[in-house]
Write a structure and sequence with these properties.
17 helices, alpha+beta, about 850 residues, about 25% strand, Topoisomerase II, domain 5, four-stranded mixed β-sheet, Gyrase A, domain 2, five-stranded antiparallel β-sheet, Neuraminidase
Length: about 850
């Protein structure tokens, strides 16, 4: 309802409806006239207007450069009434070879860099069109496209460019509209042209078949596409994630240090910010092993050098860089473009089909224009031919006429000419009457008649037109096509945490109260037998270190508890701490049940079908199960062995089915039998008798004989000895065994048994947390029926909690204290486990 107040007409409106209508108009304007490219020429309006404006200024690729300010001013004043900086930014991007796969503007001056440096002001730079841009504008003067009024209706501007270049796919596009966005990656021109020809030849071709030609996007900055699954998804659906990695080479300098050299970085990554990010991570200690970063890039190419510290793990550092820096980035593909003014997400085939159909429309309109021009010219030449053949009569008519109009009418009447032909005769210069000119006229007429026949053939035959389109596309590919820049790794895998952790040997300790930690094995110094040791962990009186062993960070830990359950953990998942640190509660890492105690930890590099887990219980039962049965345990654990009431698991080891097994008892005896006596069983079984025990005795350890070394036993009061394994005869399982150490009140009961060789080092930890490391070769080999020698001097009330061994990589003189000695885990994983 309208009201009139003092001569003004006021119409009430609902503000919600007005806001909705106004915002919808704004949204459509942004979508159609600003942010999204047209599927036909792959350009947004601002790009199209800049190229057309430069053509109007005569800035062809062979012409002199003109100031960018001149171009910006002309485009802004005539076609694009927006900010000059917005227009200039677009000009700059079209001139950057690291932004456009095939640049459309040839820039002279500073147009920015891949480091993020801005271009010089428009008054300092100069531009002209590239030859590729010339192909975008080819035939625009032949009525191939529709022209629409500019913003003030004073000029005409093309609604789309003819575009021989499949620009949408070869240069890509990105833009954010209202409620939608586009992000189309660039591709290789040769691949796209070949695919267009395939679409023409076989309209029923599938996207998967086209992907044999268009392998993947091809970015101007090169790099490596890591994995093809996202590419295939994008080509099939129009949406996908393309993972791009930098191209990194490894070099070794004279000093022996390694360096990583980055020669190509992912598309749209700022090199300066990349360097800042790496430096920030190094300073924050999130990236270890990097000594220096410097940029050695020059006009010959990119060269970003990352110097590594001596002996730094190159692969691990590179994976960390990929994970935490833009050296690996993701390009989110959204192939959204305007189709008939409507935004649509397109797959690869649809994008190619729309371009081919548009080229057909352009070529058809060009042929019609050329035919019309040829026929009009031939019509004129036919009239001139008549005049030359009757030149005397023509001259007489013209001389007798009182005016040009009369002469034109007389000529039309005398020779049955059209008005255009008669006017052309009147306009003809006398030099056309020479013999040479008469021959030229005849030749031109003959050529035009042949051209007309050819043009009519194309207009009548769609197949011939499509062949013409293919020929023109191949010419474009021949002129401007180049080799692929972006390499492809077919099966890229997601980086795991393990990929970013260096593989090294670690000492793992677990306390009686259930705290776990790890620290480098090289942190201990070797000492003489009988030394005082060094502090390995600080524990409370009610707590004590119960397990200590050595394992690689990339190995798996199988935790076997006294209740016969198995839990699974990667070594690197254990917290790395100093030797004096308490560690982290293991219940926070594995879902161990209340009251369960870990009795054995097996270090497993991989789960093989031909290997087994051999287990022993306190009451003398043994059991063998295939190792592969433990490859996928649940976080809450799985059953490893059924434990009878009053019994508990005391040890577990990996075997290959052909070893001898020795069970040691607290009474100082050992039973040796072949593991073939124990048949393989499933996880949910209890096992068979391995040793018959006297009253009060228990099994304290199990050894799987592999190296033919010596057997080392230890007692709780610090005594131990080595004896030859050959001294232990093989019996059937279920025997009581032979004496391995004489136990007494002085030595205490036997607590550990293991196989060792002279090259091993022994690592002992006491209940008070004291650690000693000594060469096994310092412990002499003696007979079975002895009490042994002192391994460690214990303080009053202290006792041995655990004992294990490591293998030396370098031979050292016995008795020499060398804190720099390095050790590595033994190849046989079961030899690194510890039994209580």
């Amino acid at each position: 309802m309208a009201n009139t107040i003092q001569g003004e007409r006021i119409t009430p409106l609902n503000i919600e409806e007005e806001m909705k209508d106004s915002y919808l108009d704004y949204s459509m304007s942004v979508i159609v006239s600003r942010a999204l490219p047209d599927v036909r020429d792959g350009l947004k309006p601002v790009h199209r207007r800049i190229l057309y404006g430069m053509m109007e200024l005569g800035l062809g690729p062979t012409r002199a450069y003109k100031k960018s300010a001149r171009v910006v001013g002309d485009v802004m004043g005539k076609y694009h009434p927006h900010g000059d900086l917005a227009i200039y930014d677009t000009v700059v991007r079209m001139a950057q070879d690291f932004s456009m796969r095939y640049p459309l503007v040839d820039g002279h001056g500073n147009f920015g860099s891949i480091d993020g440096d801005g271009a010089a002001a428009m008054r300092y730079t100069e531009v002209r069109l590239t030859r590729a841009a010339e192909e975008m504008l080819a035939d625009i003067d032949k009525e191939t496209v529709d022209f629409v009024p500019n913003y003030d209706d004073t000029l005409k501007v093309p609604s789309v460019l003819p575009s021989k270049l499949p620009n949408l796919l070869v240069n890509g596009s990105s833009g954010i509209a209202v409620g939608m966005a586009t992000n189309i990656p660039p591709h290789n021109l040769r691949e796209i042209v070949t695919a267009c020809c395939q679409v023409i030849d076989n309209p029923a071709i599938t996207v998967d078949e086209l992907m044999q030609t268009v392998i993947a996007p091809d970015f101007p900055t090169g790099g490596i596409i890591y994995g093809m699954s996202g590419v295939r998804e994008a080509f099939r659906t129009g949406r996908g994630r393309v993972v791009i990695r930098a191209k990194v080479n490894s070099e070794t300098v004279k000093s022996g240090r390694d360096r990583l050299v980055v020669t190509e970085i992912p598309f749209q990554v700022n090199k300066s910010r990349l360097i800042e990010k790496i430096a920030e991570l190094v300073n924050d200690k999130r990236l270890e092993g990097i000594a220096d970063i410097r940029d050695e890039s020059d006009r010959d190419g990119m060269r970003l050098v990352i110097e590594l510290k001596r002996d730094a793990p190159e692969d691990i550092i590179l994976n960390q860089l990929f994970k935490h820096t833009p050296l690996q980035s993701t390009f989110g593909v959204i192939m959204l473009a305007l189709v008939g003014g409507v935004p649509r997400v397109l797959n690869l085939k649809q994008a190619l089909e729309y371009f081919v159909e548009y080229r057909h429309e352009v070529v058809l309109r060009r042929l019609q224009f050329d035919l019309r021009q040829a026929e009009e010219r031939a019509h004129i030449l036919e009239g001139l031919q008549i005049a030359i053949d009757n030149i005397d009569e023509v001259i007489s008519i013209i001389r007798a006429a009182n005016s040009p109009d009369v002469a034109r009418l007389e000529l039309m009447s005398a020779f049955e000419l059209s008005e255009k032909q008669a006017q052309a005769i009147l306009d003809m210069r006398l030099q056309r009457l020479t013999g040479l000119e008469r021959q030229k006229l005849a030749d031109e007429l003959r050529g035009l008649r042949e051209l007309i026949v050819e043009l009519k053939h194309y207009l009548e035959d769609r197949g011939a037109r499509m062949e013409l389109i293919k020929e023109e596309l191949r010419e474009v590919a021949e002129k401007y096509g180049d080799n692929r820049r972006t390499e492809i790794i077919e099966d890229g895998e997601e980086l795991s945490l393990e990929d970013m952790i260096a593989e090294e040997d670690m000492v793992i300790t677990i306390s009686k109260a259930g705290y776990i930690k790890r620290f480098p094995v090289s942190g201990f110094r070797r000492q003489l037998r009988g030394g005082r040791g060094s502090t390995g962990a600080v524990t409370k009186e009610e707590d004590a270190i119960q397990h200590l062993f050595v394992a690689s960070t990339h190995h798996y830990l199988l935790f076997f508890t006294d209740k016969g359950r198995c839990y699974w953990l990667k070594v690197y998942e254990a917290p790395q701490m100093g030797r004096a640190a308490k560690g982290k509660a293991i219940i926070n890492l594995i879902d161990i049940e209340p009251g369960e105690k870990i009795r054995a930890i097996v270090n497993v590099p991989e789960f093989r079908e031909d290997q087994y887990i051999l287990m022993a219980t306190k009451n003398g039962l043994v059991k063998k199960t295939s190792l592969s049965a433990y490859s996928n345990p649940r976080r809450a654990g799985i059953i490893a062995i059924n434990i009878l009431e009053g019994d508990e698991l005391i040890g577990a080891a990996v075997t290959d089915g052909s070893n001898d097994v020795i069970l040691g008892t607290s009474a100082g005896k050992a039973v040796r039998f072949h593991e073939s006596d124990v048949r393989p069983m499933g996880r949910g079984t209890k096992g068979v008798i391995g040793a018959r025990l006297p009253k009060g005795a228990t099994v304290v350890g199990m050894v799987v004989v592999k190296r033919g070394g010596t057997l080392l036993v230890a007692t709780e009061k610090g005594y131990g000895k080595r004896s030859n394994i050959e001294d232990y005869r093989i019996t059937k399982r279920g025997a009581q065994g032979v004496i391995t150490v004489r136990t007494s009140d002085k030595t205490g009961r036997m607590i550990a048994i293991m196989e060792v060789v002279d090259q091993d080092d022994l690592m002992i930890i006491t209940a008070a947390g004291v650690v000693i490391r000594q060469g096994v070769g310092l412990i002499r080999t003696i007979g079975r029926a002895t009490q042994g020698v002192r391994l460690i001097r214990l303080d009053e009330g202290d006792s041995i909690a655990d004992i294990t061994k490591v293998v030396r990589e370098e031979e050292e003189a016995e008795g020499v204290d060398n804190g720099g000695a390095q050790f590595t885990i033994e190849e046989n994983p079961d030899n690194n486990e510890l039994e209580s």
